[in-house]
Design brief:
Elements lengths: L24 H12 L2 H13 L2 H29 L3 H9 L5 H30 L4 H20 L2 H29 L4 H5 L8 H16 L3 H4 L5 H30 L4 H7 L3 H31 L3 H14 L1 H7 L1 H8 L3 H13 L15 H16 L5 H20 L1
Length: 411
């Protein structure tokens, strides 16, 4: 890193998290579960419900959820064992300047999703509460942007506090609303899902499940590094990702089959739970958005050699200003960019397990590991262009082969 810090950095952007700053299994579970409460995952739940019967919905969710949990669990283990953020791990695997590529990718995508998340809150609430005026929409964008940026600015303690408040409320209120919708609907869940168009296969559904959060999941080490040890980091990550994502898919699926929407917000509005709907929507987005901005700040800090906090502010301002435009114009591009991050994650995991010794400290002498860089670029191209299989897994396989070949060639 370029700048020396004289004060203690409670987020340890430039160092491994020491043991005195580690957290236990309950706190880590709440942080990771809040991370997975991602409103855009509900959109995937709607797609699954529209294209599969109930049995196919469940099987796709289980298969995709297990694969996604395995991927993030490995990253969670590496982060907790080393105490290093994604960007410090990238310096080890990609070299000092080579790490700028994964840092830029994670920062760009997370700022993008941060902006989309703000708009996902502001636009429907403005429409329901304030008549959908542009002024109301932007007022809510600014308020949400400031609040979510502030929680990311104050770091892991703030993220923990938000998670402890939001996770139980979202899980309980959302589940109660889902059960109420099922009871008031015509027919059972199986009957409602049977009306789907049947346009998806189980494998296709599993691919949607994996793709729903595989890019954000690549940032798992940024949070799991605070776990007490690798076992805690892996276990909390695997369980949180499986439960959290499954809950979001159910929220989206139930919304689709009972009210024709794609969000638990619409279900709750339909049930007359207006203010609770706003609370659940806001908290659900907040728990993911502050994590996204936190990761973006760490990434930009690595690239520009600055402290994390100013970079969080810069990221928050950009995401807030562009929120509405990102929502209407950039979601498709963000989905393409999602395929570029799994190759990064698999290389970080391989680098650690192939040479644990070099992870005993944060010092790095290599400037660029070109095989790692080429692996990510080629993996991203294959993930986006090859039409068969699951895109993110295709990208990871190509990146892993490139990195493995390069590692052997360098010996």
């Amino acid at each position: 890193m370029k700048n020396d810090n004289t004060s203690v950095d409670i987020d340890f952007a430039e160092a491994a998290v020491p043991h005195y700053a580690r957290r236990g299994i309950v706190t880590m579970f709440m942080i990771m579960l809040g991370f997975t409460f991602f409103s855009a995952s509900m959109w995937v739940g709607k797609e699954l419900a529209d294209g599969l019967d109930f049995g196919g919905f469940i099987i796709s969710m289980i298969i995709g959820g297990l694969i996604l949990s395995l991927y993030t669990g490995l990253l969670g283990y590496v982060g907790a064992e080393t105490g290093m953020s994604l960007d410090l791990l990238a310096r080890k695997a990609f070299g000092v300047k080579g790490s700028y590529l994964p840092s830029a990718m994670i920062s760009f995508t997370q700022i993008g999703w941060f902006g989309v998340g703000i708009a996902m809150f502001a636009i429907p609430v403005a429409n329901e509460l304030l008549g959908g005026s542009t002024a109301a929409e932007w007022g809510l964008v600014i308020i949400a942007g400031v609040c979510m940026t502030a929680s990311a600015y104050f770091g892991i303690k703030s993220l923990t506090l938000i998670s402890y408040i939001a996770v139980p409320l979202v899980a309980i209120l959302g589940t109660v609303a889902m059960v109420m919708a099922v009871k008031q609907g015509n027919g059972t869940l199986i009957d409602q899902f049977a009306k789907s168009s049947g346009t998806l296969t189980v494998v296709g559904g599993a691919g949607l499940v994996i793709g729903s959060f595989v890019s954000g999941g690549t940032a798992t080490p940024n949070f799991s590094r605070f776990a007490r040890n690798g076992k805690v980091g892996a276990i909390t990550t695997v369980i949180a990702f499986f439960i959290g994502n499954s809950l979001m898919f159910f929220f989206g699926g139930i919304s689709s089959v009972y009210v024709g929407g794609n969000d638990i917000f619409e279900v709750m509005i339909n049930l007359g739970l207006f203010y609770l709907a706003i609370l659940v929507l806001g908290l659900n987005i907040w728990t993911t958005n502050d994590n996204a901005l936190y990761s973006a700040g760490l990434g930009l800090a690595n690239i520009f050699g600055q402290r994390k906090k100013p970079m969080v502010l810069v990221s928050g301002i950009i995401g807030t200003v562009l929120a509405v435009w990102l929502y209407w114009n950039f979601t498709g591009w963000l989905n393409i960019l999602n395929c570029t991050l799994p190759p990064v994650g698999i290389i970080l995991v391989m680098s650690f397990f192939m040479d644990r010794e070099k992870y005993k400290d944060v010092e790095v002498t290599e400037n660029v590991n070109w095989f790692a860089v080429f692996g990510v670029v080629l993996g991203a191209v294959v993930a986006n262009l090859v039409p068969w299989g699951i895109a993110s897994i295709n990208g990871m396989i190509v990146a892993a082969v490139c990195y493995l070949v390069g590692s052997k060639a360098k010996k």
